[in-house]
Write a structure and sequence with these properties.
This protein has about 110 residues and is α/β, with parallel strands linked by helices. The chain has helices at about 15-20, 25-35, 50-60, 85-95; strands spanning about 5-10, 40-45, 65-70, 100-105. Strands 1-2-3-4 form a 4-stranded parallel β-sheet, covered by helices on one side.
Length: about 110
Amino acid sequence: SNFSICTTMETNRYYENIMGDTPPPNVRAHCLSQFFNFNRHITIEPIMDFDLPEFITMIKHCDPRQVNIGADSSPKHNRLPEPPKEKILELIAELEKFTTVVQKKNLTRLLK
């Protein structure tokens, strides 16, 4: 009960030019979902543009106890494909239907 396992899923998409050799988000989600007896957490940071229905399904499949959401916090913001404010708010609303959502302070830049 004192142990959690976590993965980062920035999006449901695979941006090869950005993600390089990292496993695609769907692979990370599948692996996390296999830890049945552990508290599972997901961090969406830095959040990148996503497909809402697919992203929600992928996250829900993991049955996370908590989802943290944050923006790119590097000084140059790395020119990542960031979603618009409305889409982020819709994601948060959908996630709150089945898990706890924690908005990191750096997300405020995208929610202005």
